[in-house]
Amino acid sequence: MNMRILTGVLVLLLVVCGSVFAETVQLDIMAIMPDGPREAITEAYKKVRPDVELIWSPTGGYWNTLTTRIAGGVAPDVMYWGTYGRPLMEGGNLLPLDEFIERDGFEIAPWANQPDLVTSNGHTYTLPWWGSNAVFAYNKQLFLEGGVAEPDETWTWETLRQAARTLTRRNADGGFDRRGVHFSPSHIAGGWGDLVVQSGARHYTDGYTEIFPDRGETLEALEFMRALTQEDRSMDASLYSGGDYTQAFYDGNLGMMYNVNSGLLGMRSQDLPFDWDVAPLPKGKERTTNLALITAAISAQTKHPEEAWNFVKWVTAGEGAWIIARALRGAPLAREILTSAEYYEALPGLNLKVMAEHVMSHTTFAPAPPRASEIGAIMNGVARDVIWNGTLDPATGYEMITSQVNAILKEEATR
């Protein structure tokens, strides 16, 4: 056997042995996601990187489980990140992404680059994945029958209130066959928080030292929402707890409902017997809507930083992001997707374009304060009693929120 043939055989053996014994990298992924998109992402990434296996960890009790895993030194490589994760970011638990971003020339869209959730102390720790922003779903048939103009870019909170009154219908027994509008009971992203921002006011001072510092505008927002329920009766207080306002809309007994973009696919799957569409939030002094971000982060404990980065980049701005967009998990945040005709046409007949334009042009970020869960519980409880139960007046409710939450913020500032 001559030397050339022998060399060729040795090279072939090395290639074969290398392919047999090459170690497959397993990436531990922890992200709350429906089965369909998760399976699609796994299959698509296998074609791109056959040397990387995605292992999806259970997500029950997500934040408690994640915190426990980080503390125990067994954090997932890649994780789903949101408002409640801010303290973990500040604790040095995430891998800074600055070098990867600079090396690869990666762009984070300006409408998604949220301080305290994407960046902290001058470093980037997460990449925006998708977002939830508010829209109104409305029954076009009821608007037509009631002689009410369909909502568009010109409508205001007052025209919403007037439309809700007109669409509300009482029955002969003094009850109601139909209500005009419903908002989610959530404290910030459920209507009155948006109204606070649209009035030109703030949810928090810079640095999260004080909540709702603009008293007058906050009281106006609480009063507006209270009046829908307690005076106009166009919003059904019984749907706050135990009632299903989504089902009321499906049954044709609700004219408009506040929703987030991630809920639209489920609505379309109902094949409702009437025409419906989506509209942006009404306009206040400013036109804006809160964007609640979900981001992807890499653990500082990962043993596979390069593989984790490549996956995070792919899933937030590559084909993985398209999979999320097509599943309408929420608003995609990558520029290429959010401005594409394919995304606008994902649900034919619905005005997804106006929703996308609002993400890009009229977004304010949903706040990410410390101890967000605890603060949220306080605000939800007070809002319930002011808006839905009518047992607290707005001024008393405001004092209760600010006194309790500011005490928490003060305590956090001294840590």
Verbal overview:
There is one protein chain. The protein is α/β, with parallel strands linked by helices and 415 residues long. Helix content is 44%, strand content 16%. The protein contains 18 helices and 13 strands. It has helices at 3-21, 35-48, 62-71, 86-90, 98-104, 140-145, 157-167, 192-198, 215-230, 245-250, 264-268, 305-317, 319-326, 335-338, 341-344, 352-361, 372-388, 394-413; strands spanning 25-30, 52-56, 78-81, 119-120, 123-124, 126-139, 169-170, 176-182, 254-260, 276-279, 289-298, 331-332, 363-365. Strands 1, 2, 3, 6, 7, 8, 9, 10, 11, 12 and 13 form an 11-stranded mixed sheet that branches. Helix 9 (215-230) packs across helix 17 and helix 12 (305-317) packs across helix 13 (319-326).
Tally of helical runs: 18
Strand content: 15-25%
| Overall number of strands | 13
Output the radius of gyration. 25 Å
Helix content: 40-55%
Largest sheet: 11 strands, mixed
Uncertain residue segments: 9-21
Euclidean distance between termini CA atoms: 76 Å
Shape annotation: globular
Instruction: Look at the helices and sheets and give the structural class.
Output: alpha/beta
> Overall pLDDT, averaged?
85
Task: Write the topology of this structure.
Elements: H1 3-21, E1 25-30, H2 35-48, E2 52-56, H3 62-71, E3 78-81, H4 86-90, H5 98-104, E4 119-120, E5 123-124, E6 126-139, H6 140-145, H7 157-167, E7 169-170, E8 176-182, H8 192-198, H9 215-230, H10 245-250, E9 254-260, H11 264-268, E10 276-279, E11 289-298, H12 305-317, H13 319-326, E12 331-332, H14 335-338, H15 341-344, H16 352-361, E13 363-365, H17 372-388, H18 394-413
Parallel strand pairs: 1-2, 1-3, 8-9, 11-13
Antiparallel strand pairs: 3-11, 4-5, 6-9, 6-10, 6-11, 6-12, 7-8
Helix pairs in contact: 2-13, 8-9, 9-17, 12-13, 17-18
